[in-house]
Specification:
59% helix; three-stranded antiparallel β-sheet
C-alpha cells in the first residue's frame, strides 16, 4: 500500500509540475521578470501583506496599542500536510489504517520520509524574497521607509525565518555597485526610480515593495551576481557587524540573536563554507558558552571543524580545536580526535600565537 500511495503522490506532483511549466511557457522570464516595475500590483500586495504594511511614523506607532497580527502563518506558509492525511481523501482503505495504533505510526513516518525525498527530487528548491512589512521611520533629520524582507525557501517551512530590514538607499547602493561590476548582466534589470515627492504614500510604498521583491529575485537568478560579494554582503554584513559590536560589549544574549539571523541568511543563500560563515559559527559558539549553553556551543564547534576538515591550516582552526576540546570535556563528549589534531597543529607551527576563539572574533575586521 505504501508503494501505491507513493506512486500516486509522485504522479500528482509530476502532473502539477508539467501544468505549471505549460502555464508559464517553460520560460524563466515569469519567475524573474526583466522589469522590476511591472503592472500596478498595489492592491494585491497590500492584501497579501494582511495589515502588516505600516504607513505611520515611528512616534505614531509607539502611541498605538499593539495588536496581534493574524494570518502570519498564511504569509509564511503552513507545514506540508502529512501524506497519510492527503492520501486518505483518495484511498478509503488508508483512513482506518491511519487510526490503528502500533504499526500504523511507523508506516506514517516511512511515508513522510518518502514524501520528502520524492518532493525534493521532483521540485527544485527556489529562494523567494517577500516584503512582509514596511514602516515609515522618522528621525531627527531624516525620514525614510524601512522594508522588512523574508528569505523563504520554496517548498519548505521555516520555523525561524531569515529576515533583513533595508531602506531605499541600501537597495540603491547595491544596484549601483552591481552595475559597475556586471554592466552587461544588469542592463536588463530595472530599478525603482527616485521620486521628488509622494515617497511616503501607501501607493508608492506598495509599488516599491513589489519592485524590490522582483529586483532581488532577478539578481538571484543570475549565477555570477548570486555568488558575488556585493550581493551576498547586502544580506548579512550588517548583522555580522552588529553582532560583533554586541559581543565586544558583553551583550551576549542580543548578540546571539543577531549571529543566529546571520547564520540563517547565509544558509538560505547557500554559502555555508565561506570564511564569513565560519566567523558566524565562532560568534554563536562564544555567545552560547558565555550564556552557559555548553551543548549548543559544542555543536557549533563541531560544525566548524567539519567544514575545516580538509584544510590543514586556517586562522580559526586552532581556536576552534581548543574550544572544542574544552567544551567536550565540560559536556562529557569524546575529545580525542580534536586533541590529536591540535597536537599536530602545535608541532607544525610551534611558535605561532595561540589566541582564543573570542579573541579572534573580536579582532576580525568587518568594517
Amino acid at each position: 500500500m505504501a508503494a501505491r500511495i507513493l506512486h500516486r503522490l509522485r504522479h500528482a506532483l509530476a502532473g502539477e509540475g508539467g501544468r505549471e511549466e505549460r502555464g508559464h511557457g517553460g520560460s524563466e522570464a515569469e519567475d524573474c521578470p526583466e522589469s522590476s516595475e511591472l503592472e500596478d500590483d498595489t492592491e494585491g500586495l497590500s492584501t497579501r501583506l494582511s495589515g502588516t504594511l505600516s504607513f505611520t511614523s515611528q512616534e505614531e506607532e509607539e502611541e498605538e496599542e499593539e495588536e496581534e497580527e493574524e494570518g502570519a502563518a498564511e504569509e509564511l506558509g503552513e507545514p506540508p500536510q502529512a501524506p497519510g492525511q492527503a492520501a486518505g481523501a483518495e484511498d478509503g482503505a488508508w483512513g482506518p489504517a491511519a487510526e490503528r495504533p502500533g504499526g500504523s505510526s511507523l508506516l506514517t513516518r516511512q511515508l513522510q520520509e518518502l514524501w520528502r525525498r520524492s518532493r525534493d527530487s521532483l521540485a527544485p528548491q527556489r529562494l523567494l524574497f517577500e516584503v512582509t512589512s514596511a514602516s515609515v521611520v522618522s528621525e531627527r533629520s531624516s525620514k525614510y521607509v524601512l522594508y522588512t524582507i523574508y528569505l523563504i525557501r520554496s517548498g519548505r517551512f521555516d520555523k525561524a525565518p531569515a529576515a533583513i530590514a533595508r531602506r531605499y538607499s541600501d537597495f540603491e547602493r547595491l544596484n549601483r555597485r552591481l552595475r559597475c561590476r556586471f554592466s552587461c548582466d544588469m542592463a536588463g534589470v530595472a530599478f525603482p526610480r527616485k521620486r521628488l515627492r509622494r515617497n511616503f504614500t501607501a501607493e508608492t510604498i506598495a509599488k516599491r515593495s513589489r519592485a524590490f521583491e522582483q529586483f532581488l529575485s532577478h539578481l538571484h537568478s543570475i549565477a555570477e551576481i548570486r555568488r558575488s560579494p556585493e550581493f551576498l554582503e547586502f544580506f548579512f554584513m550588517q548583522d555580522l557587524r552588529a553582532a560583533q559590536r554586541l559581543t565586544c560589549t558583553g551583550m551576549y544574549r542580543e548578540a546571539l540573536a543577531t549571529w543566529a539571523n546571520a547564520y540563517r541568511l547565509q544558509d538560505r543563500l547557500g554559502i555555508c563554507s565561506s570564511g564569513r560563515f565560519l566567523l558566524t559559527l565562532a560568534g554563536l559558539a562564544v555567545c552560547h558558552q558565555e550564556l552557559e549553553q555548553l551543548g549548543e556551543a559544542h555543536s557549533c564547534c563541531e560544525q566548524a571543524l567539519e567544514l575545516l576538515e580538509a584544510q590543514g591550516s586556517h586562522p580559526l582552526l586552532g581556536p576552534f580545536l581548543r574550544a572544542h576540546v574544552h567544551l567536550a570535556w565540560k559536556v562529557g563528549k569524546d575529545k580525542r580526535r580534536s586533541e590529536a589534531r591540535l597536537q599536530g597543529l602545535r608541532e607544525a607551527e610551534p611558535l605561532q600565537p595561540q589566541p582564543t576563539l573570542k579573541e579572534c572574533l573580536i579582532k576580525e575586521p568587518l568594517e
